[in-house]
Predict the 3D structure of the following.
Amino acid sequence: MNDLKLQVFKIYDDAEMPEFGTKQSACFDVKAYIKDGTAVIGYDNDNDEFKKWPQDNEIEINPGDRLLVETGLIFKIPKGYKVNLHPRSGNSLKKAMVLANAEGVIDSDYYHQVYGMITNTSEKQIILNSGDKMMQGEMVPVLEYTIEETILKVEQSTDRVGGFGSTDS
């Protein structure tokens, strides 16, 4: 039995705990927490900040908008680990709803609410309801390492030829 745990504090009593979809799931689902009367901060295609006010515990996401959506949760991540947040494949395919930063990283010393930076990459408005699965997370070990400058230029060490994009067909 594995004693490793990701502890989760619910900021709001009605926030939903993350859940694994199956016993073999690599990631757990993280749900949106959207409540009437609580502003959701967003940015439009021109990078102008705006606030949206949910109605009926749902939020409209216009094409190109990026919203900072609450989860109502704080993760207590064990030292030596991090939580990676990923888009959900079904949301990406069916709704064009992805994470604005492609992947979120939560360090073990972060002790604030977890948010989803949700963006609508489609040409149509989408609706996100409180309790909808909006992203998935996984707790993974972190390697400890240092960064040091070298005065020696990196040289070719394999049979690879070419630089950025050289292996594209």
In short: DSSP finds one helix and 13 strands in the chain.
